[in-house]
């Protein structure tokens, strides 16, 4: 979700990749809540850190509790690192709408963090995501 949102708000300013600590399955709830805001995730397949070819990055953003240690173990180089402590919507119990609400909350949390935190790491972008003149 975070990589897709970063590409939406900063389409020509960055190359965003998503990789998890563990392998995962396609999550239909992710597809549904991203489609609500016009992002097509139908071609997205989850990837693990083991599948990354690059080992050097301008910025690494971690989302899970175990991700910072996994990044350290891989000896990735990064110009900057951010860790965002976010809620895991897969832990939400309840009916379909309650679970979707948890995914929507994560989507909105990530959107706010991306718009607030990424511009400082991108050249030519103001804090609100618009282009500097």
TrEMBL record:
The keyword Iron belongs to this UniProt entry's keyword annotation: no
Keywords: Arsenical resistance
Record-linked SUPFAM superfamilies: Phosphotyrosine protein phosphatases I
Domain Phosphotyrosine protein phosphatase I: 1-120
Superkingdom of this protein's organism: Bacteria
Protein name in the entry: Protein-tyrosine-phosphatase
Organism the protein comes from: Maritalea mediterranea
